[in-house]
What does this fold into?
Amino acid sequence: MISQFFVLSQRGDNIVFRDYRRDVQKGSAEIFFRKVKFWKEDGKEEAPPVFNLDGVNYFHVKVVGLLFVATTRTNLAPSLALELLQRIARAIKDYLGVLSEESMRKNFVLVYELLDEVIDFGYVQTTSTEVLKSYVFNEPIVVDAARLPTLGPAALFMQGNKRMPGTAVTKSVVANDPGGRKREEIFVDIIEKISVTFSSSVSYSSISSACLCSFADTLDCYLLEAWSILKRLGVMLSNDDEQGYVLTSEIDGTIQMKSYLTGNPEIRLALNDDLHIGRGSVPSFGYSGSSGTGAVILDDCNFHESVHMDNFDIDRTLSLVPPDGEFPVMNYRITQEFKPPFTVNTLIEEAGSLKAEVILKIRAEFPSSITANTILIEMPLPTYTTRVNFDLDRGIVGQNADFKESQKKLEWNIKKIVGGSEHTLRAKLNFSQELHGNITKEAGPVSLTFTIPMYNPSRLQVKYLQIAKKGKTTNPYRWVRYVTQANSYVARI
Amino acid sequence: MAPPVQSHRSPSPSQPSGKGEVSDLKTQLRQLAGSRAPGTDDTKRELFKKVISYMTIGIDVSSVFSEMVMCSATSDIVLKKMCYLYVGNYAKHNPDLALLTINFLQRDCKDEDPMIRGLALRSLCSLGVANLVEYLVGPLGNGLKDGNSYVRMVAAVGVLKLYHLSASTCLDADFPPLLKQLMLKDKDAQVVANCLTSLQEIWSLEASTSEEAAREREMLLSKPVVYYFLNRMKEFSEWAQCIVLELVSKYVPVDSEEIFDIMNLLEDRLQHANGAVVLATIKVFLHMTLSMTDVHQQVYERIKAPLLTLVSSGSPEQSYAVLSHLHLLVMRAPYIFSSDYKHFYCQYNEPFYVKKLKLDMLTAVANESNTYEIVTELCEYVANVDIPMARESIRAVGKIALQQYDVNAIVDRLLQFLEMEKEHVTAETLVLVKDLLRKYPQWSHDCIAVVGNISSKNVQEPKAKAALIWMLGEYAQDMQDSPYILEGLVENWDEENSAEVRLHLLTAVMKCFLRRAPETQKALGDALAAGVADFHQDVHDRALLYYRLLKYDVSVAERIVNPPKQAVSVFADTQSSEMKDRIFDEFNSLSVVYQKPSYMFTDKEHRGPFAFSEELGTLSIGTEPSDGAVAAQRVEANDKDLLLGTSEKEESHGYGNNGSAYSAPSYDASTTAGASQGNFDLVSIDQPSTLHPPSGFAIDDLLGLGMPAAPSSAPPVLLLNAKAAIDPNAFQQKWRQLPVSLSQETSIDPQGVAGMTNPHALPQHMQGHSINCIASGGQAPNFKFFFFAQKAEGSSAYLVECVINSSSCKVQLKIKTDDQATSQAFSELFQSALSKFGSA
It folds into this structure.
């Protein structure tokens, strides 16, 4: 059972504090905050989400810079506590529209009201916004959404896509529009986070020769295996010799729903006809090369409890009565190969004893009708780098490159990249000491973060979204949106 | 409620001190109290908000208590809620004022609006004032019978609150039976769930003193009750499902058919988006199939995909919780996960705590087919700018090398690390190379060549330096410069801060001298002189020992300091397999995250329902000390196989990092330990009672009769198996399963009590009567023991809980058996054995 729940600001102030069992000392919030802040002197390691201090177990999750914390003295299931904290954050967001320190402070009485119903004497009662609605009476005080960073993946749609009504995703489930009338609408977001690791960008032949040199005498079996991997991957190799092949790739997807429909009508979501769940005998991460145009194969998925799958096997439809608030209809995971949206070429070369040159080339491998947003390319440089001069492509607006001296890191920001285009950055590095050894071991890997609206590499689709008619004539607004985000997108050099 | 967290701190300048503001509030509230003017409620809301906001930031606003109560006469539900929140927070510390609130709370408990009734009842029960409990009974009784499910839901938890305030009031009002009724018939699933949680807590706490409560607690695990919950599973909220699933995981099905039925029923829970539900379901699956090896393995295969999906779909915190459990499973059955190794590759943006778990899993699943790829991946991390990660990755590579037979390639990689010339990489690698050489001395040639090139000046970390020095001494013969490097190090003796390094230096110089005397003589002299003068006791003693040894006889010194060594075959595991099993028992709890059984981090009173396993955990394992002694002897005897040899052992005290590897019994010591403690003999968990096949009867009989303690005066009809054995897990399971067949109070010889000062006297004595102690614990005057015995013929087992009060000489016995007919006979036998304790 939970003893206490509290939310701390970034500075460690209590925003709300609720004691349910009175068996943990009152100063726990302060004790917790100090422990997390000074977890490791060098700041290299973060405090784990769960730790024990003097017999008290502390759980915490970070949401938009706020710390949601629960304490207990019992041997509680950690997944339960952490899931609960996340859900409390979600319920609060559903109510306030925007989750932030400001909105929490303005609405703390409402938050207390929620907390009163979510947990009783340490036992979870409900976290469903739908159920909570009948117990909670405070009206949310709306904060200006435009100024605030919003929580959750829905925030991705805020920029770049003019068709979306910007305020909708930050609208409280209980507050009415200024007109007093609720707008009937439903949002279905297909959000895919992709992780890709490209191998070192050495050419095919140089890998194999390197293998031969260093392991020839001892590694016959490994070598054979390495060869066969390379052969299998041959399909994936681009013609460009400097491009690494895909070492691992994964798509973690969510179909997120947020409904503002009155009367809880039933909804049917139709997915791709050729959708398969479970890879069966196909080994994970195996690159069979056959799936270029084939079916969408999910390794595995899970569903929100409101989802009925009665017809899923027949026509790939999910039916559900969406509860109020934001929730994931379905989470899925794919290791089937896909075409990475960006390829990265990196070249780092010595240019004299105290100098080196880096050439970064990034190519957008998606159709030109699609534009990626807020691309950030990062690359750690040798620790003895003192100065970097950049040479950017001309003719592109909204890009800049920077050398973060304290972290010895190169950062290259590009606002927008149109599909099919290619961009290059040249950087001249100056060192404070002479190079020793291999410079490629001292720098890298290159990592990317980006957002690509209206694009999803898995090709999973919502073919239609059907809302059961309730007699009324008004046709609700239906928004089906796709977005792809980099999770861990790394090119080794 | 929101307590004054920072009240003890002097208020910071930016924060209002509160004093002035609070008295302002007080006057304003007072003015409003009687007012009925329109708009009063809005003004009240603002004021109430201020009060609660002060309360949250830690300003003491208890002084406005009476004003708040006066203002509470309102029909505005938001105001009421704020008032309840305030009252709940301050009532406990102002019991006199709390009395003021009783009136309006009781009135609200009878309100027309079920919402208000529920809220008032919750607040009433949350006051936490012990001398007001009499006011709770009536409203609670009504609440449990209320027509509205919200009120019943609140009342069910309210009973538990009352119990914690005053157990006797709660029990006298007969609330638990009422809860039980509600639990088994209420239409509302949340009411049912709240009844279950309240009853679990109440009966577990009562069970230690009340036989009836213990029975009721067992009742919750009975087939009809468990099935009742299973059938209503889908009605419950996801959180209530977790509670029910936890209950089901404790249930022991009769046969495999039942197990499959339950698993089929719960199958779809594995596809739930809530990780807590999935893990609770997995616990049920894992625990139910423990005795069915094949099915158990299928369960692993089945839960793999859902777990991996959970890892990648939630926040990093959630995936950490899931990953910890995956980690536990991978450690238990690495072969099942060996083809999934790519899932354990680290992503650059993951927090360190996630990466660390993944590295552990990568090392665990490495086998012939994937080692090359895993090690290649790990090498990428070593080159990483993230230093802690680089260190961990090197350790991981080393671990893989130590567990593989074909290590050539890995040794190459490790040696390449040394060429990277990064200080932290070099340091970490040196420590590993040393361990590697202890296991694979045949690699010394290759390693020495590379290690010899490392300048000791570039190695600063004590552990790494110690490792380097150890190699310089150990391989003095093959390393050309060894004596001279050592000499250089001895010259800087005074600058060496680490005693560990100085100890190693002494030994290394000594070894080097024994092989290359002429070159090392000077260094040895200097080192011994410096060592004897050293302020550190161990260094001083070791130097003196060497000095005297050398003086006595060089060949003896040689034999002691530098004997021929055998390679270490297995490095000791840091965790015993028994410990691991206990953690596995506590699947889906913090134990898995901390990698410790719960008794190591939880107080006894917070063990929760069905805490029997934990209860056993805190008690020391029955025969521990004698066992430890025997185990130690065993280790001594096995020294030659397992360890480097005595001198090496002596030397190893300096190895902080793997000192335990030397002195602790090795991994396969579990069998050693098992053999040395009869009652822990290799029993398979699932069939504790079929341990002795019929063929052993004759011998058992003989032994049973031949035991010195076999009572001659009044020979009992019942003969016990002298070699009866059960492991603690099986014991726990059985203890939960069986009803109490006999509960008795008896007394113990005062002389015996005197013997209680040695906690192992009684277990030893009882063992003489073929009754084995499984666990024991407690402090004077209360001691608790769990005993196990088995009938010589047939498989009936007897489980005894024995609580001894050493001051009153009273003994309470609880006997459980699967052979009811002989329970009385056994009880007599047990008591006769007990009565002899101390008098013999």
